[in-house]
Each structure stands twice: as structure tokens, then as C-alpha cells.
Amino acid sequence: MTLKELREKLKAALMAAQAIATTADEAKRDFTAEERQKLQGHLEEARKWKEQIRVAEGDEAMRKAIADMGFGAPDGNGGKAPDGGTAGKGKTLGEQFVGSEVYQNWMRAVGGKSGMIPEGMGIQSPAVEFKSLLRKDLITGASDISAGAFVQTDYTGIYEPIGRWPLTLRDLVDIRQTLSDTVEFVRQTKQVTEAAPVPEANVKDYTGATGEIEGRKPQGAMYWEKVFAPVKTIAVWVGATRRALSDAAQIRGIIDSELRDDQAEEFEDQILNGDGIGENFTGLANTAGILQQAFAVDVFETARNALATIRVIGRTSPTAWVFNPMDWAAVELIRDPTGRFYGDGPFRTGPRQLWGTPVVESFLKSAGTAYLANWRKAVVWDREQSTIRVTDSHEDWFIRNMIAILAEMRAAFGVIRPAGFVEVELS
Fold first, then answer.
1. What are phi and psi for residue 165, nearest 5 degrees?
2. Helix (H, G, I), strand (E, B) or coil at 416
3. Is the pLDDT assigned to residue 244 strictly greater than 80?
4. 317-336 pLDDT, tens per residue?
5. Strand order in the sheet with 402-415
6. Residues β-bridged to residue 176
7. Are residues 380 and 271 in contact, defined by beta-carbon separation less than 8 angstroms?
8. Which of 13, 122, 155, 400 to pair with 100, CA 20 to 30 A apart?
9. Exposed, middle or buried by CB within 10 Å (0-12, 13-18, 19+), for 386?
10. Sign of the CA dihedral running 348, 307, 316, 285
């Protein structure tokens, strides 16, 4: 494949990746899981074409170097060497000396038309300068004042960030909208449990005498509580120069993406671990009423007990487990006494499950415990999705050509049924 074809392949891969990023930016949203997978594929493809271009360019450079050194002698090929080099290149110093214009003029002056030097004549030829031997004339690619000034950096346009942990919880919990700064919901604390079989009455006015049946029906009772989930703000900003944003158009998209990703990561951390103090959300780890499952015998028996707990006490069916990745790795690596994996081992296909319930890994879940839950019993209320604002109205930034880029989101989080969640000890 030619260099031109390779460069076209690289350009196509980068344009495909840019199209996905532009679509997400215009929609003011994060990448979907499918988009992230496609982006990764395009970037991997771009790296492959880039490596092939590097190799091909190296080969081309070596061919050019051979030609520039004039490998081979002229053979009447129009003043060209067989390899395309200039005639005269590749000659010995002696050949270059006798073929020089200075030497030829001197010979004509001394030998006349015959070109022969008279016998017995003392001669001294003029100096012939070989500039190619002088360091001052050596053109190198390493110096900025020589050929290096013409060597341009091969800018690929590929941007490779440090990377962030995949976020999973927003795909599990219920997402709703709110237009207020406080969300109120009602949580039942006692349900009706007084129903009982009742015989038919046999007297009009019940006195309690022997044989009388009152036939009174039992009265049920249920209690509720109001729960308030305040809308809170998650924000982050960075500073940049106006010139940087003007001269490097790509940097604005990178900044916006980084800020939004940081917000999303912080929000998931708050959902799991927020302590409810100050402007922190009250996360699952600090929500009252979450069921607890103590460790018993081994991880598998403990997990099975947790399934019974959420169904019997929580009175709901779980939708997923959430494990810290290191904890889940330890579970998958458990073997029987013969050394065989209890699960499917390294050749697993399909989604991960434990006792028939899907397993999701969250890098923000603390190690040592896992959650088994009906995740629809946790709700995120979006008040204001992530927005990006730019201003120079910060201190003296206007006169310094500085720009503040602010990302901000507002949301509320609440667990509408704490008994729908079980925190499971893993050891």
C-alpha cells in the first residue's frame, strides 16, 4: 500500500472518530457505551495506520539517502546514475579532482591545445576545494539552522487522554426530571397487615353473651413519612487563555469533555458514598434502612442468603449486583479442590451473573462489600443537566485575556425504598 493510501486510511479513521465526538458535543451529552466502543475502534485503527506510515516513510527516506549519495556511476543515462542519482556523485576524490573545472582550466593553460604537460616542467596545480568535506557545509536534519528548519513535526491529531473509570450506576437507577430545588416523595413505613377471616354476625346488638357473634371486621392501619431530597450542585472550572482557545480549536472540545466526565464521576461517587454533610448527597453507604447481610461460610453461601433476604425482608426482586472490580475478580477466581473454576473461567461468554442475577462492576464502590438491589428503588432527579459556560468576568481576567470555563450540573438523589438494597459482606 502506498504512502498516499495509508495517509487516506489514517484520515478516514480520525474523521470517523471526530464525527462521533461532534455528535455527542452538539447534543450536550456524554458518549454512549456503543459510541465509546466505536471511538476506541477508530483510534486503534488510526494507531495502526500511523505505525505503517512511519515504517513506510522510513523506507522512503532510506531510498532517498541512497540516491542522494549517488550510488553507482554515470553510464550515459542522460547524465544520471543508474539509481537516479546525479552524475559525478559517488566518485572517488581523485576522480572528482581531475574532473573539476579548476583542474581542467589549469590543464588547458599549461598543456595548450594538446593538453599535455611538457617534460621537465615544474608544475603545481591550483587548490581544488571539496566543500562536501567541510563541516560548515554539512547540511543536517538535527540543526534548526540547517535542514532541520525544513523538517516539520508529523502532527497526527490523535489525542489520548489518561482515561477514566467506566461509569455504570446511571444505567441502573431510575432517572426522572424536576423543575424545583427540592424533591419531596412519600415513603411507606407501615403497611396494612390486619386482615383476618371474620365469621358472620348472628345478633343485632352484640353484648358479649355466650354464643353471640359480633362479626366485626378488623381495621387496618398504614403509616407514611415525607422524605425531602434537596437539589444540589456539582461544579468544576478551569482557566485558559483566549489565545489558546482561538489558536487550538481542539482544546475547547477537550476541556468541555474533561469537565463533564469529572462531574459524572463525582456524581456516581456521591450516589454510592456521599455522607449527606453540607453539600454532599446522601449516598447508599449512609442511607438508613439499607439491609445488611453478614458473611457466612463463603462468598457463594453469603450471596445466596442475600438473595433470600432481599426477597423475604425487602419484598422485591433484585435487578443487579454491584461489585468493586477487585472483589469480583476474587470471586471469579475461586476454584474447587481440584483446581477448576466454579464459574466459566477465562472463556466466559455472555453477561456476568451470580446466582442468576447480573453483576455490574463499579470502580467507585469501596472494596469489602457488594450491593444486591432493585436499583429502580433509587432515583436521580435531573434539575439541570451538565452545562458549560465561559466568561472573562473573573478578577482581572478581562484585561489579561484569560477565560474561565465552568461546568455545572444540578440534581437530587434519593432511595425511595431502602429495604430494596442489601449490603453484603464478602469476607
1. -70, 140
2. coil
3. no
4. 999 999 999 999 999 999 98
5. 174-177, 378-391, 402-415, 232-241
6. 381
7. yes
8. 122
9. buried
10. negative
Please say whether the beta carbons of 194 and 174 come within 8 A. Answer: no
Pick from 183, 193, 176, 404: nearest CA to 315: 193
Q: Evaluate if residue 363 carries a pLDDT over 50.
A: yes
- The CA–CA distances, whole Å, from 243 to 155, 211, 240 equal 20, 98, 8
HSE-up (13 A, CA, CB side) for residue 123: 15
DSSP H helices, 69-113, are 93-98, 101-111
In the three-class reduction of DSSP (H, G, I as helix; E, B as strand; rest coil), residue 256 is classed as: helix
Specify which residues 360 forms β-bridges with: 322
Residues in contact with 314: Cβ distance below 8 Å, sequence separation at least 6, in sequence order = 291, 374, 417, 419, 420, 421, 422
Q: Which three cell numbers stand for residue 137?
A: 557545509
Higher pLDDT, 14 or 301: 301
CA-only gyration radius of the chain, Å: 40
d(C-alpha 323, C-alpha 362), whole Å: 6
Beta bridge partners of 292: 423
Q: Which amino acid is at 413?
A: F
Tell me how far apart the alpha carbons of residues 332 and 371 are, in angstroms, rounded to a whole number: 17
Higher pLDDT, 105 or 172: 172
Q: What is the pLDDT of residue 257?
A: 83
* Secondary structure letter of residue 394 according to DSSP: S
Is 0.70 surpassed by the pTM of this model?
A: no
Give the least confident one: 114-118, 217-221, 380-384: 114-118
Which has more pLDDT, 13 or 129? Answer: 13
* Selected residue with higher pLDDT from 39 and 69: 39
Domain locations in the chain?
Answer: 1-90+130-160, 228-335+352-425
CATH architecture of 228-335+352-425: 2-Layer Sandwich (3.30)
How far apart are alpha carbons 410 and 422 in whole angstroms?
A: 28
